[in-house]
Amino acid sequence: MDATARNVLPMLPALAALAETGQTLAAADLLQMPQPTVSRMLGRLGRELGVDVVERHGRGLRLTRAGEALAPHAAAAVAAATAGIEAVQAQESGARGRIALAFQSTLGERVVPALVKAFLQEHPGASVDLIQTSRPRCLAALADGTAEIALISPLEEASGMRQWRLHTEPLVLVVPTGHRLSTRARVSFEEAAEETFICMKRGYGMRTLLEDLAQASGVTPTIGFEGDDLATLRGLVSAGLGVSLAPRDPHGATGCVEVPLTNPEAVRHIGACWLDRRPSTLAGAFQELLRRRGRRLTEIGLRPLGG
């Protein structure tokens, strides 16, 4: 391996991420790096090669022809490294025992199964105990030792707690078919200020997100109904009883229209958290899986069905 190859190898993930996402901000989120760091890395890559691999495009960056030529090779290098790591992890598949995983109800249908399946494929001798509950109870399960890892949204920033962001998902305004906002390409949350809202009960993550968005928008929402799961909320919306704030429904919401929101705060950050202490062997293995494959598995789990 020559000197140029040794120098460019650490920078190839940045190029692969930009090629995959098309945006420096999204690439930075994928790599869990600050955006300026990714931009500087791409600049250094071009200088090392003697040809620019990115160029300015509006407020962001896009690949040059040289960058486009290098991108598939960069992706192949990242994939090879990932495969090597997984091969090493497979040597540890003899780990046995039980791990307890707490998670919010809104993550139980798609995200949790994808992560648990991948974990058990790598550690077939392990067992996973699932605790499905509200966000505060997920955190309480970590505190009292009932669970070793919690999947929550929004993330928890607290002393003695570690977190790992898995995905940032846009939220939508769910309205009944035929509603005055149902034909709009997008709306601001403020435009729904006079609507009756159907939301999760207090203590659920989606209720916290609604309250945070309302506060940021200067809106005091009128709460008509409260529920324990998103399917019930969408059913009430489809009956014309109000509107709701929710992530997109992978099944498609019958009798409802999901209208994108323009507010930058209208997102939910999905992630994992655990206590900042030495983990058990299985908890450490699950944390490592989250770092290696968690973001990709979460994104796949949240894709629309058939998409």
TrEMBL record:
User: What InterPro entries does its record include?
Assistant: LysR_HTH_N (IPR000847), LysR_subst-bd (IPR005119), WH-like_DNA-bd_sf (IPR036388), WH_DNA-bd_sf (IPR036390)
| GO cellular component, as recorded | protein-DNA complex
What is any Pfam family matched here? LysR_substrate
The yes or no answer to whether the keyword Transcription regulation is present is yes
Question: Coiled-coil annotation: which residues?
Answer: none
Keywords (alphabetical) are: DNA-binding, Transcription, Transcription regulation
Query: Keyword Glycosyltransferase on this protein?
Result: no
Residue intervals of the HTH lysR-type domain: 14-64
- Which superkingdom heads the taxonomic lineage of this protein's source? Bacteria
Q: Name one GO molecular function term.
A: DNA-binding transcription factor activity
Query: Member of which family?
Result: Belongs to the LysR transcriptional regulatory family.
UniProt protein name: DNA-binding transcriptional LysR family regulator
